[in-house]
Amino acid sequence: MSKAMARRSDAQKIPLSFTLNGRLQELEVEPHELLLDLVRGRLGLTGAKLSCDVQVCGACTLLVDGRPVSACTTLAFEVRGRSVLTIEGLAEDGKLHPLQEAFIAHGGFQCGFCTPGMILAAKALLDENPNPSEEELKHFMHGNLCRCTGYKKIIESIMAAAKKMRSA
Amino acid sequence: MLKRFRLEEPESVKEACELLGRFGENAKVYAGGTELLLAMKEGLAHYERLVNIKKLGLNQIKRDNGTIRIGALCTHRQLETSPELQRVLSALVKLERNVANVRVRQAGTLGGNLCFAEPHADPGTLLIALGAKFLADTGTSKREIAAEDFFVDAYETRLAADELLTEIQVPAPAAHCGVAYLKFGYLERPSVGVAVALTARDAKKSVGDIKIAVGCAGPAPKRMAEAEALLRGKSIDEATRGLPKAGEVAGRAAQAISDLHGSQEYKEHIVGVLLKRAFQSALSQC
User: Fold this and answer.
1) Start-end ranges of CATH 3.30.390.50 in chain B?
2) Any CB–CB contact under 8 A between A19 and chain B?
3) pLDDT bucket at B146, cuts 50 / 70 / 90
4) pLDDT at A23
5) Alpha-carbon span B96 to B244, nearest angstrom
6) In A, which residues are within 8 Å of B105 by CB distance?
7) Would you call B81 exposed, middle or buried from its count of C-beta atoms within 10 A (0-12, 13-18, 19+)?
8) What is the ipTM of this complex?
9) Scanning B102, B129, B143, B219, which has the fewest C-beta atoms within 10 Å of its C-beta?
10) 68-97 of A, contacting B, C-beta below 8 A
11) If DSSP codes are grouped into helix, strand and coil, which group holds residue B269?
């Protein structure tokens, strides 16, 4: 047996059962597997992006039990028994979430690389604070970076979605 | 990419400390992972085993007479949203609200922040000025380490290999006490952080006790005893006139390092500016 194969057979496996976009997933992970690699590589959901890899940019943001985390620096086993939402799970029955609609209507993205993280972070904000001031919005979102549009249209998009969601 | 490691998940402090003692430098405590995993991904550190201590609880915030006891596994998010802390330690809540970003605050723990001892961190500096004590536990014995003695150097603390930091104990600030932490920096890593805790006396005409700490500028947060002595017991007018001198003294004592976050000279200057502002902010709360 080659050395690499021997190592592989020794590998520690952790049973992982969690909800991904509303569907139960049951699989095994190794301790060092990252949530972002699991979601993108093994489960094929590529909305979350690898960018800075140091929890600064927010492109890999996923919601775990409704709260934003950096999937690039979260060990996959940590979502045991928890609920993970990716951008792919946000639309319901083919209908876009108000945040997604607002980003389109207000031009809240250009290249789109940061957008899945932006929208999920904004969802976490509006779920806990449906009527944020612009200052509160900026404070919450300052860890999500965009390198195309600047932030004006992103802020407009989130504010418009917040208004729509409050009136719904 | 992370290299492969084994995961240990002890169910008690004793078990965790036994694992840490047995595996020594081949094992590392893993809590929120916000700093450790970055170092491991960069290849700056590798451990054969990570000891996940999140099954140990240690995540309560309690008021115990005059002491606020914060479990080491409280996340920054828990601290920034705690109504109890908001009542008695609003300066810590404000600090926590501005740690890194919302995702780091969600995962990162106060204990992890202190034990990793990354120089550009906020909480240690304020906890020194507050006169906090850290509880180090081996599962069979406990000892208290004063916050001001805890930090040895960058990434180095007084914790022994088989000790866990389990609790942060903060004396509730007395009446007529003001506390302020101010920081300056670009993006998320502060260049300089200054904390001041003081009491006013004689109908707010003079400074009673005062504690000052400076962090981020040098390798580890430090208490500024010499600067404190220039202000302690002085009338407010005298103390206010003495602030530039105290700022200069604290700037020198901060052991500022020239790096990406600013030159030594620049950081020393910022220490003085922040010390003055933090003093005035703390005084205004008395």
Assistant:
1) 180-285
2) no
3) very high
4) 97
5) 28
6) none
7) middle
8) 0.94
9) B143
10) 68-70, 73-75, 77
11) helix
